[in-house]
User: What shape does this take?
Amino acid sequence: NARNLRQCLRAYSVLPKYCKNPNYKNETAVELVKILQKIDKKLTAKIGPNWKKKWEEKIGYPIKNRVSEEWIRGRASIPLIAIEKLAEFGLEKEADELAETIEYVCSTTQQVVKIPKTLNQDLLYLSGFILGDGSLPVRFDKVENNFQYAVVLVSGNKEFLLSEIKPLLERSFEINSISLGYYNHGGPTWELKIANKTIYRFFNQLIGVPNGKKAEKACIPDLIKQLPPNEALPFIAGLIDSDIGKHSKGMGCTFRSKKLVYDLIDYLAKLGIVAKSYGSHYKDNKYIQHDFSIPKSQVKKLKDILGENYLPKRKDRLNTLYYLAGVR
Assistant: This one.
């Protein structure tokens, strides 16, 4: 709903100085004001001078007195959800123009980021990767006296993270403050970390990737389940690059989440691929792991479908996929 979307994307437009000081002019500001004036003129003619009241009602959370008036004049930063609601008045083109013209800032960090308007293939891939070998941690910082939110992507392959994953994140969110960390817990591990509440909420509340300790509650997010099966394939490619590798004679892995196993089996069945689960077992006598397997006889079909849509990016996983599919 609108309230959750507002909480998810606490991102506000960064107003060019001209909007607040007409004596300071720049091209972006002039273009922004022109779009706002065009929107106001069209909706005043179509609905009447009080159209902004209807706009506020669509947004779905309380708006302070006359704030929408300031938005449309270019005197106050417009929340992304408010721009999105303009499209419901038949102004899809103008809403898109507005969204493309302005940038967005995380109100907590004051860092400018791009908020994607569509769920494209790269975002699906990143979502699958995070679900498999990443996390959305939240911790309380006693020094700052507030919560810290982050997006973390993990791999044992440093070069893969830097050459493939980091550019995807930078391109998707137009952000360059991505840190690289290293630790050794049973093996060398590298992690990319984005400490940004807006991007965290994008993956958690918009796409539906679980936060915190996600292992036992992992599943294919509902938003991705609603896509046509072929369109969701980049999500599977992300899971392959993070978690799904050579498994017995085919491909697969073990997950702590039984729901994720059966979500994957159901999803692949829609593509005509028969995946299976061969039961559960205790891992180190601490917790239960559930088997997920794609038999070798099905790997070629998976490779062909991925090849037509979105292939894994890790060379070793891609080689495994080709080898098991009988491609030499």
Q: What stands out?
A: The chain has 15 helices and 13 strands. The two ends are 50 Å apart (CA to CA).
